[in-house]
Amino acid sequence: MKKQYLTFLVALFILSVISIGVFATPPEWAKGGKGKTKTPLQTITAQTATQPTTQTTTTTATKTPQTTAPTQQQQTGASNATATTAEEGINWEAVSVVLVIIGALIGWYVSRKMRSKSAFYLKEIDAIYKKHQENPEAMDTALSELRERIERDFESGKITDQAIALLEARIDKYTKMARMDTISTGLRLPKTTKRQIKEMLEDGIISEEEYERFADMDLTHLSQKDYEKLTRLMQKWKIGK
After folding, report:
1. pTM for this one?
2. Which end of the chain is more exposed for a tag (fewer CB within 10 A), N or C?
3. CA 166, 110, 17 angle in degrees (round to 5)?
């Protein structure tokens, strides 16, 4: 997991450096050095240079407006040129590509983390089964506690729908085996009673209807210890308990 985190952070750092380079790209680089256009100031200067000179006898008072007009045009042109340069200074296509890549990396990281969480729980379920094979009641209890942890992670968004379905199926499988073994070896039950209880546990749980059937069974032939233990287990295995 540490190696994955390091790879993710390095990738984000590289993309950040690329993003800085993209935002700082000069206009002529963004255009690839082609199609350079003259600014309004350059155009006005060129036009002024090409205009023919004429001899006039106009007074100084009449020449003043002619020198003011080009100055105002030059200011307007310079202002427009600055705005155009500022707008052309960012290569938005490259920025979009970088953002898409960053989003994809974040999605990959989250997905990877969820998959690793699911794999961790699968290993833990199998470990519980191997550890408590000889003690089915302890296995049942440990699996129930693990199921609660998994459900909390699912509610907090750390596990996907597909992952929790897979994990619960594995837990249900081992839980059913543990409960069947408890009935077979953990209690001294007559064959008929044992068969009836196992039929109720066919899906690994006890429904309300099945619990009512159990409550109506004649269990007077059981010892007090076995009766109390069986009753406690059936209440524990009942749906909603």
Report:
1. 0.57
2. N
3. 160
Give dist(CA 91, CA 151) in Å, integer: 46
Give the pLDDT confidence of 80-100 residue by residue, as tens digits: 555 554 455 677 877 777 778
Q: Of 168, 165, 197, 163, whose CA–CA distance to 180 is shortest? A: 197
- CA 222 to each of CA 96, 218, 238: distance values in angstroms, whole numbers, following the listed order: 75, 9, 21
Q: What are phi and psi of 206, to 5 degrees?
A: -115, 120
Does a structural domain hold residue 171?
yes
Bridge partner residues of 206 (DSSP):
238
Residue 201 included in any domain: yes
In a domain, 36, yes or no: no
CA distances from 230 to 189, 207, 217 (A): 9, 16, 12
Q: In this predicted structure, what is the pLDDT of residue 26?
A: 54
User: How many structural domains compose the chain?
Assistant: 1
238 phi and psi angles, rounded to 5 deg: -65, 145
Task: Give me the mean pLDDT over the 206-234 stretch.
Answer: 94
**Is residue 189 a contact partner of residue 226, using CB atoms and an 8 Å limit?**
yes
Instruction: Indicate if the pLDDT at residue 158 is higher than 70.
Output: yes
Domain membership of residue 158 as a residue range: 113-237
pLDDT of residue 116: 74
Percentage of the chain with pLDDT > 70?
59
